[in-house]
Amino acid sequence: MFRTIRPLVVGIVLLPLLSGGLARGQPGSWWDARWNRRCELTFRGPAVPLSDLPIVVRGSQLRRLAGDEPFSVGSLRVVGPQGEIPCQFDERDGTGRVVRRPNHTLDDDDELAFQVDLPAAATTRYWIYWNTAPLPPGRYTSRTLMGAAMEPAAWQHDIQIWNDRVMLGLRGPARGEDPTKNQIENWGAGALVLLEVLRLPALRIQHSWSSIFPRGAFGSSPSPEAAGWGLPQEMVRGPVRVAAVCRQRAASWKIHNGSTAKVDVEHRVWLYERGAIVCFEEEIVARDAVKPVQVQYECGLNSGEAAGDQVWYAKGGKPRSFSPTEDQIEEAKRGKIILNEADMDPWMAGYWPNLKKGYAFFLDTGEAANGEVRGVSCYVRSGTTLRYSRAIEALPAGQSLLQRFWVVGLRGKVEPQAPSATWAALKAPPVRLGLVKRRGAP
Question: Which pTM was predicted?
Fold first, then answer.
């Protein structure tokens, strides 16, 4: 099976099923008498099973559910068909950024995160529980770790996050003496430079043009701005997701007409506890008004070199695949492009049948309304590269542009139509929030 992602107000993921319930009672009845409020989440079953689906419910949604009543954020729990599942409440406190000293009150930009499993073609119900009086926060275990980089000189990164399915490294400023010089020490500033998914290298480390994720993201190539990144820092650590952030303040953003604008930039990388799921976010906040501009990205991902290995993609919602022959593989080793496609849907996947695993790349244009994805294309040489551009009509001072990328591991038997079905689900998350129910009320 295959799976995908994205935050809610959601995201959707298709990956090997990892069971997640902490059984306790029957959620159809009231889960625990100490909690006095709940809201039902109804998920429509997609055409293929989905598991490890990341869900993010915004604080603004929870505030609408609470109305004028008190709301204990520590009391938040999520209950699924098999009982309680881990959830995580990340506080932003109106700042737009996760805060280290939260106010423990419900703000519009706070986030409740959890992951769900959905069977195919069936309706599934989960519940969010909370209390009007304080209750202790939930306690859950986690297998995801964050720490100082191992072998930083070899892998060119400053902070590392890993679990038993994914290992990733985020880099801060350029390391070269001259940050504008075209050498590997200056590539990848502020980007991911280490990414292994299910023990497969998704990035070809030590190849300067393709050992960053994504290429073309702000400040990732040799330039005066490459030295301006701060060192990556822990952003959040919890039982559902772990994140690190790398920032650059008052940087000069070159616009297509030759002028520049001052912007603040954040690169955030999220690793989810269940599945093999990585999310990379780039947020650009304009200090000056930015006139029309086109942002270009290129994501070079490693792919197999054996005949029969598969590349999946889609055009107009119709899935396609490509499997190189032995002759084509030899041509690719000599630098020839063996597949070149344009006008694609913004995703691609690589799968190794002999290993029964691979990974998929998905583009999510974030939440800014004034950006349009254009010119999505991919080509295959010795690896698979997905390219696209995003046109921005205007970015007023103080407004942000968010770009989001996902890499999702594939494991087990993956049906050819599954990636395309997943992408369709990403565009229309199959979830609906119900009405608030009060314990004891009819």
Answer: 0.91
